[in-house]
Sequence to fold (307 residues):
Amino acid sequence: MFEKNISYTLTLILFLPLALLCTIFFFPNTHNYLQSYFLSDCQSPPNLTAPPPDSNPVLPLESKPEFKLLFGILTLPEKYERRQIIRMAYALQKPTLHAQVDIRFVFCNLTTNEQKAFISLEILTYHDIIILNCTENMDNGKTYTYFSSIPNMFPGEEQPYDYVMKADDDAYFRLNYLVDTLRDKPRNDTYWGKGYPPLDQDNPPYFVGMGYALSWDLVEWIAASDFARHNTDGLEDINLAMWLNVGGKGKNRYNMRERMYDFHGVEPKDFPQDTIAVHHLKNDFMWMVTLNRFNVTQVPPSRFYHV
Fold:
């Protein structure tokens, strides 16, 4: 009797693993149930109704951006160090929850072999460069070339962005605050920025050049406008407003007023909590103060560094 029990036990030991392997092989979903059965109390069982990884399920509606913004920073090719500071500052901001914001650095044709080599490294590394077909300038048509070139960069796409923004490279924007101000705005005939002069706050004749946004239809209109094409010399922000005013465009104007301002001090009171943008950051000291005030530079403690 004892020998029979040993023989029966050995049979179970030898053939039970083989039976389990065969079951898993011929019935592949069985491993889900086995895994669910043997999970510890601190784990949740797998979702047996979830689609397989390669089924490419439709993302929930809340994960799709409400709008898309092309955020173009007009700068110069040789400003490598400044560009890197700006990149890092924006990369460390919390992701915008309601919009897709694509940051691009914009300049005219490269003129030296050094520029071509080093900016090629940037393009390959960051994919955030736009090079326009123009000669580098500030107030002789660069802004017109930027806006008029954008539609042709997306052939076959009906409307790749809802808004296109032009920003200076001496301005720091808090992107979530910017996005929040655009969420409820019309997606057409919209002109957004800091208005000037301050006497007409509700319907300013133009928005200052530190940063302003246009809805996509206005960008397409500028690209097709003969008037804009023949009136590009002079202060770029005033020129752009002149194109819109003469053309009867940009009737939906949204003035951010004191939420966008020039750097004017180093005290906490000089940086209101609802700030959208700080402009005129002309040197490293001004960038340092601004980034510190908005807690961009805080690092966690570590044994590998001390700041």
